[in-house]
Amino acid sequence: MIYLKTAQEIDAIRQSCRIVAEVLALVGSQVKPGVSTIELDRMAEEYIHSRGAKPAFKGYGHSEDNLFPATLCTSIDAVVVHGIPGERRLVEGEIIGIDVGVNFKGFFGDAARSFSVGRIPPDKARLLKVTEESLGKGIAKAVAGNTVGDVSWAIQKHVESHGFSIVRDLTGHGVGRELHEEPAVPNFGRPGTGERLEAGMTLAIEPMVNMGSHKVRIASDGWTVLAEDGKPSAHYEHTVAVGASAAEILTR
């Protein structure tokens, strides 16, 4: 079921999204060689609690035996998404995708950004640039009267025109009353297909872009998604509210 939010509900989601944006700015400022991903995670969790909110990812999952154990997803190089923070320290030249969700007074925000660790090679820099641009292309289509497929195609077209590939096994999603809601928002598709967008929809649009093949595999921990060919991957995400003439980026 797709939930259309009232103006009051969107304002509540906006407050959660503001905390998400603050966390990404804080944690991103600390991405540097030698920092461990668990340090970044602790920093994020402490900040979220200081704002009177709760981490949305910690304890999330469909199996009680394997709930996600951390506040952030920290995904380095060939890790596409859902990397689990640990004692692993960042190394110059790597890229890291940081994804965070926040529950503030029962409403959810979700966003991700990829960061360079020190100086990175030109091909990785281009991967980050194209992935972030593709997110902007998708958001520009998140307007009432368009379809999910219009968003999907705008992302896919931009990514593939630059020689990269879109991950097909994972999608964006509705967000707001719950962390994951309908509709699914694939990053590939055909214009004019899928659900019709309406004002009041709130979506997490999140291209995951691989330097090599689009194929992925899941690690033995049941969470970490890796590029099958071991090449780098990038991830950018915003929560947006669909509008009559333009989408509002709530996690800016």
Describe this structure in words.
With 252 residues, the chain is of the alpha+beta class. It has a single domain (7-249), classed as Creatine Amidinohydrolase, CATH 3.90.230. Helices cover 27% and strands 25% of the residues. It has 4 helices and 15 strands. It has helices at 7-28, 37-50, 122-140, 148-161, and strands spanning 54-55, 72-76, 79-81, 95-104, 107-116, 165-166, 172-174, 181-185, 202-205, 208-210, 216-218, 225-227, 233-235, 238-241, 248-249. A 5-stranded antiparallel β-sheet has the order 8-7-9-14-15. Strands 1, 2, 4 and 5 form a 4-stranded antiparallel β-sheet that branches. Strands 3-12-11 form a 3-stranded antiparallel β-sheet, with no helix packed on it. β14 (238-241) and β15 (248-249) form a beta hairpin. α1 runs antiparallel to α2 (37-50) and α3 packs antiparallel against α4 (148-161). The chain starts with 6 loop residues before the first helix and ends with a strand.
Properties at a glance:
single chain, alpha+beta, 252 residues, four-stranded antiparallel β-sheet, Creatine Amidinohydrolase
